[in-house]
Amino acid sequence: MGPTVEIVGPFEANELSEFYNAIVVFVNPALRPRGLDLTLIEAMHCGKPVLTLNFPSITGTVVLNEGFGYTFAPNVKSLVEAMETAIADGVEVLERKVGVCKEDVSSMFTADKMASAYERFFLCIKNAKYFSLASSPPCTTSPPPPPPPDEKDVADLATKRQPWAPNEVLNPNGGFGLLTDSSD
C-alpha cells in the first residue's frame, strides 16, 4: 500500500474530530461481525466514505450501497483489494461518495431516531408480553416482529431519558485504519 495508508489505533474523545478531518476514507478492518458499528456512522456523519466488512449487519443498516464507500469479505485479501480499489478510484469518485455520506446518513441516523429505536427495543425486552427467554421455544424460523410497546411506556421512558449532547462521542475506542492524502 505504501505511503498512502497509515494504520492507527483507538483515539481519545477529544482527538476524534481532528482524526475525521484528516482522513479521506475511513477503513474499519475488523474481520468479525460487530453489529451496528457506531464508528462507521460517525465517519459518515463527517462526510467520509467508509471501507468496511460486507456483513448483513453493516450492508443492511449502514452501508446500503456502494455510494457510501466500499465493502469487503472478512479476509485480508479482500480487504487489500478493496483498499486498492479506493486508491485507484481517486479523488473524483471519493468526493461523490462524500456527498452521499453527508446527505443520506445525516437523515438516517439522527440522535432522535436512534434513541427512539433503542427505546422501542428495550421496552420490548423489558415487557414479558413481548419477550421472554424462559418460555421461548428454540428458534427454527424467523419469529414474527413483536407488537409495538404501549404508548404510555414510550412516553414514560422518553420523559426519563437524559438529553443527548450533540458533541457526545458515541464510540471513541473502536479500531481504525485510514487512507491519508499523499500530498501532505
TrEMBL record:
Transmembrane stretches, start-end: none
Residue stretches of biased makeup (Basic and acidic residues): 149-159
Pfam family, one: Glyco_trans_1_4
Residue ranges, annotated region (Disordered): 136-184
Highest taxon, organism lineage: Eukaryota
Coiled coil (residue ranges): none
Protein name: Glycosyl transferase family 1 domain-containing protein
